[in-house]
């Protein structure tokens, strides 16, 4: 029998003692692979014959002599003896003894071959023989029959009484037996049939140990046991456990206490089930969050029902043991260069199987220097453009940043981004030169090559050349591939516009083949040289202008001419008036817009046209000449317009005679004035009226306005007054006339008109004494008796002491108290004398002082409305008018002499200026020479010249020998006049002139051969005084050197 904790792994044959392995062995770290088992051995109970019992006795004889004849007895052993030669020799011989023992029944039966142990498989068939016991009667001589029986209670086996065969009585279930060794011990008794010597039936008993043999009729089962050993185990088919991922190999899972039991002995009885990590890499939460393990308890010897299974669900606990990883080590990404800020380049994300890192991975681009080009969203991994201007393929075509992913445990993973900038058509083709300039004579052929480059990749960099449509683009062709530019026909300078100045400006394009295509253009300037093959032409066949009279240097009009030649050497035009001017007009040449030249005709600055003269229309012949002496002429008609510039003049008129007390309503007379202007409107105004009263010799102010003057010049009687000869016998009216349509100068007459109106006396007054209300007599207290103290005929006082009293009352009211009154505009004027008692009279100031302090003044103010106290006008004695006439004649003569003297001085200065210009020409003519210049006379008043900058005053050093020395004497006006040779006069264009005009500097003209030279001073003097003669020859001369005609 095997005992010990490892007994379940082994079995022993109870008869032979052979130990064999029963269950698969498992090495345990506790016993280090050494199994210690206990073996129990027991023997059977035998009865032996008593010692020293003589069974039989043998006797032997040896024929030898001596010691050799001595016989010794032994069982199975030969003692031997010495031989003749001294060696011990053993020799033997055998004898048989037959002993017969007579038996008596005095012994109990004896079981043979004890102890008895056998085995029978469980569930053996009932009646199956299990074991046979055999007992004998020890009394061999008697050999009594023996019967067998089983003692005690036994439901499993039975024994045959006659032959001792033990057989199965009922079904045997080994696992139901409580014996730990799963065996049954039967006590079998062998009883002799016949009584023994003692008279009893001899019997003996022995144990028959029957081991119930296990057949594999039970499969192993799993049990869940408690943590404590005392906790019961419960059969279960499913279990749960947990373990950290990547636990080391051999580490058991947590939370399991599983035992596997097989009640069959051959399958071992019980074993602890442990699930341990076999491969830590496979225990990966990121691969599986849980594992379902099926454990199998197998009985390999049971072919029918060998196995039991159980499910163990192992929950894997995640740990942050993984770094973020990208699907690829390198990403090749393409993005268009100059993509807009924020453009997504790509979205690259890393994965981290750790649960705590899900959604918590952060991204970053390395190195930091790449951030000015690209950046990444830290959460989403979206890579985007940060500066569209910097991502330029032509600067850097490939960026290789590192994309880093970091989890919460700061585990990092990286991948390399190869961001290739794809070419977009962002580079405009650039010409190798800023501009292309070539020169070609008209009629010749042009061949010039333009070239451009493009910084983009092909096909964006492939260039095609073209010509932008323009005025002259149809005259040229360009090879789209090579850029060779050629004309496809003769070049005609005259067919070009004047504004182009002989330049053909083409815009040549270079267009790449990108999408969309980009293009640039470069200027190509082709200078076409001109020849003089066109004559000047006036734009009109005739011109008609009008100009107002009386305006010096007044602009008359412009004539325009054009020369189709396109260069200034061939199309420059100068104008001149060849006839019909009579010295009244000059013409100046200016550049016209857009082409050609313009000749501005103005009135001579020294001349004022007079409409009132005999010539009112001028027919001029203007000539246009280029430098090649080609010319054209045109007729210009100038009409002089009347301007209201003449002052009206009064016609002489004799004195008028009007009777006093006249009340007629018609005009008593009429005053007239004349105006030489054709359009005028005269209005008459009364300036003043003076009267000769009371026999006075001089005219003085009139106290009453007897006459009114209408605007038409009619003299009418005033309805407010009555003409009284006794008051004034003569009235003189001073009248002024005004022209309402005057445009220039004063609009009134130079001298006022005067008309004398004599008042004719009629017999309308009766003789009467002067009324004297009171007489004051001054008598000296020393006067003697009989002295004359007064005269009653007349009382006189100096009229300068007459005082006027102005009352607001009517005449009738005043007459009630006073007698001497005069009416004046509704108020009453009384002329009185204030005389003291001593005969001295008071003036107005003294009377004012006295009255202001007296009650009389207050009374007069209250009762009669006294308003004013003042002196009267005293009419002085008139001086002889003849004297004044003589003085006026003398003054007029002096004025005439002064005007004549001034005129002579101005004329002298003008001739000095012209003479100086002529002398300057002579100096210039000697200096200005050249192969391409024609010499000619310099005549003041011309606009013909031969070359650019031929003005001797501006461009040449004047020989001091030719200096006339006028500068020291000349006035500033002379110098200004001379300097006018340097520049053009600013001409105020007439509103009637619709032609555009631009002030430019006079250009050189080549003098024609048709104008003969005349001595300028002689010509000028010859024409002096005949400027307004219709038969006077033209004052226009050809000037080959001066740059202006304004002298």
From TrEMBL:
Protein name per UniProt: Cadherin domain-containing protein
Species annotation: Coregonus suidteri
Pfam family, one: Cadherin
One Gene Ontology biological process: cell morphogenesis
Compartment(s) where it occurs, according to its Swiss-Prot or TrEMBL record: Membrane
Alphabetized GO MF terms: beta-catenin binding; cadherin binding; calcium ion binding
Region (Disordered): 1004-1047
Stretches with biased composition (Polar residues): 1032-1047
GO annotations of cellular component type: adherens junction; catenin complex
Residue span, Cadherin domain: 9-111, 112-222, 283-326, 327-431, 443-538, 539-650, 658-769
Xref: InterPro entries: Cadherin, Cadherin-like_dom, Cadherin-like_sf, Cadherin_CS
PANTHER family according to UniProt: CADHERIN DOMAIN-CONTAINING PROTEIN, CADHERIN-23
Top-level taxon of the source organism: Eukaryota
Spans through the membrane: 882-906
């Amino acid at each position: 029998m095997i005992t010990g904790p490892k007994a379940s792994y082994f079995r022993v044959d109870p008869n032979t003692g052979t130990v064999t392995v029963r269950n698969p062995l498992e090495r345990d770290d506790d016993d280090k692979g050494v199994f210690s088992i206990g073996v129990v051995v027991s023997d059977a109970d035998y009865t032996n014959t008593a010692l020293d019992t003589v069974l039989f006795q043998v006797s032997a004889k040896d024929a030898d002599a001596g010691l050799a004849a001595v016989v010794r007895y032994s069982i199975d052993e030969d003692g031997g003896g010495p031989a003749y030669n001294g060696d011990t020799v053993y020799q033997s011989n055998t004898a048989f003894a037959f002993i017969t023992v007579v038996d008596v029944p005095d012994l109990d039966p004896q079981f043979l071959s004890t102890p008895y142990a056998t085995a029978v498989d469980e569930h053996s068939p009932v009646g199956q023989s299990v074991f046979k016991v055999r007992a004998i009667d020890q009394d061999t001589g008697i050999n009594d029959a023996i019967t067998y029986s089983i003692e005690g209670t036994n439901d499993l086996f039975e024994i045959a009484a006659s032959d001792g065969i033990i057989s199965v009585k009922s079904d045997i279930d080994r696992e139901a037996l409580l014996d730990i060794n799963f065996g049954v011990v039967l006590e079998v008794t062998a009883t002799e049939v016949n009584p023994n010597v003692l008279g009893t039936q001899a019997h003996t008993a022995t144990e028959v140990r029957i081991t119930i043999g296990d057949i594999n009729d039970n499969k192993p089962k799993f049990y869940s046991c408690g943590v404590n050993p005392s906790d019961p185990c419960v059969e279960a088919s499913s279990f749960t456990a947990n373990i950290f991922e990547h636990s080391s190999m051999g580490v058991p899972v947590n939370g399991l206490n599983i035992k596997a039991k097989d009640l069959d002995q051959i399958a071992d009885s019980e074993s602890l089930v442990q699930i341990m990590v076999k491969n830590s890499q496979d225990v990966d939460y990121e691969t599986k969050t849980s594992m379902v393990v099926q454990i199998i308890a197998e009985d390999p010897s049971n072919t029918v029902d060998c196995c039991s299974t159980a499910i163990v669900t192992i929950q894997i606990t995640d740990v942050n043991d993984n770094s973020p990883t990208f699907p690829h080590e390198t990403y090749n990404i393409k993005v268009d260069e100059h993509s807009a800020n924020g453009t997504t380049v790509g979205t690259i994300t890393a994965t981290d199987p750790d649960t705590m890192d899900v959604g918590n991975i952060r991204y970053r681009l390395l190195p930091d220097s790449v951030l000015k080009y690209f950046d990444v969203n830290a959460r989403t991994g979206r890579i985007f453009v940060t500066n569209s201007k910097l991502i330029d393929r032509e600067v850097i075509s490939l960026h290789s940043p590192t994309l880093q992913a970091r989890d919460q445990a700061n585990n990092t993973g990286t991948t390399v981004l190869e961001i290739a900038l794809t070419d977009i058509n962002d580079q405009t083709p650039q010409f190798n030169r800023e501009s292309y300039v070539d020169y070609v004579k008209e009629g010749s052929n042009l061949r010039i090559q333009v070239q451009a480059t493009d910084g983009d990749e092909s096909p964006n960099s492939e260039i095609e050349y073209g010509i932008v449509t323009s005025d002259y683009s149809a005259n040229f062709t360009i090879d789209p591939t090579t850029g060779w530019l050629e004309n496809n026909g003769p070049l005609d300078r005259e067919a070009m516009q004047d504004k182009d100045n002989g330049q053909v400006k083409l815009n040549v394009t270079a267009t790449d083949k990108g999408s969309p295509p980009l293009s640039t253009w470069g200027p190509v300037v082709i200078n076409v040289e001109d020849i003089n093959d066109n004559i000047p032409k006036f734009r009109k066949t005739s011109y008609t202008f009008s100009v107002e009279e009386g305006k010096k240097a007044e602009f008359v009009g412009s004539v325009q001419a054009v020369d189709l030649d396109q260069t200034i050497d061939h199309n420059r035009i100068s104008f001149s008036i060849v006839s019909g001017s009579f010295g009244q007009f000059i013409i100046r040449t200016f550049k016209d817009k857009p082409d050609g030249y313009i000749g501005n005709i103005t009135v001579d600055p020294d001349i004022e046209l007079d409409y009132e003269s005999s010539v009112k229309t001028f027919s001029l012949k203007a000539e246009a000449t280029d430098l090649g002496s080609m010319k054209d002429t045109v007729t210009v008609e100038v009409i002089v317009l009347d301007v209201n510039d003449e002052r009206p003049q009064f016609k002489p008129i004799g004195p008028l005679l009007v009777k006093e007390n006249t009340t007629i309503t018609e005009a008593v007379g009429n005053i007239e004035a004349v105006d030489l202007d054709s359009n005028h409107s005269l209005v008459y105004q009364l300036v003043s009226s003076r009267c000769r009263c009371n026999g006075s010799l001089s005219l003085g102010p009139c106290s009453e306005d007897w006459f009114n003057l209408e605007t038409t010049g009619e003299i009418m009687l005033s309805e407010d007054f009555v003409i009284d000869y006794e008051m004034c016998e003569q009235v003189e009216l001073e009248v002024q006339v005004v022209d309402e349509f005057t445009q220039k100068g004063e609009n009134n007459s130079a001298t006022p008109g005067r008309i004398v109106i004599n008042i004719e006396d009629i017999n309308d007054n009766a003789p009467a004494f002067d009324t004297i209300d009171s007489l004051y007599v001054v008598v000296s207290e020393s006067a003697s008796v009989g002295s004359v103290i007064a005269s009653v005929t007349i009382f006189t006082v100096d009229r300068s002491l007459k005082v006027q009293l102005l009352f607001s009352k009517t005449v009738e009211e005043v007459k009630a108290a006073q007698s001497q009154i005069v009416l004046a505009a509704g108020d009453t004027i009384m002329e009185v004398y204030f005389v003291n008692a001593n005969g001295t009279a008071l003036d107005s100031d003294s009377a004012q002082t006295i009255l202001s302090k007296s009650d009389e003044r207050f009374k007069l103010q209250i009762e009669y409305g006294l308003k004013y106290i003042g002196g009267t006008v005293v009419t002085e004695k008139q001086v002889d008018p003849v004297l004044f006439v003589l003085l006026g004649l003398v003054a007029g003569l002096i004025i005439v002499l002064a005007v004549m003297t001034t005129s002579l001085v101005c004329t002298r200065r003008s001739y000095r200026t012209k003479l100086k210009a002529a002398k300057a020409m002579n100096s210039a003519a000697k200096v200005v020479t050249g192969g391409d210049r024609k010499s000619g006379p310099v005549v003041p008043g011309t606009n013909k010249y031969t070359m650019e900058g031929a003005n001797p005053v501006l461009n040449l050093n004047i020989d001091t020998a030719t200096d006339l020395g006028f500068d020291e004497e000349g006035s500033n006006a002379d110098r200004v006049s001379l300097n006018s040779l340097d520049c053009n006069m600013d001409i105020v264009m007439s509103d009637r002139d619709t032609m555009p005009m631009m002030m430019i500097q006079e250009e050189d003209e080549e003098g024609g051969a048709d104008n003969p030279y005349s001595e300028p001073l002689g010509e000028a003097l010859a024409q002096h005084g005949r400027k307004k003669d219709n038969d006077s020859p033209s004052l226009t001369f050809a000037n080959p050197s001066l740059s202006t005609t304004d002298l």
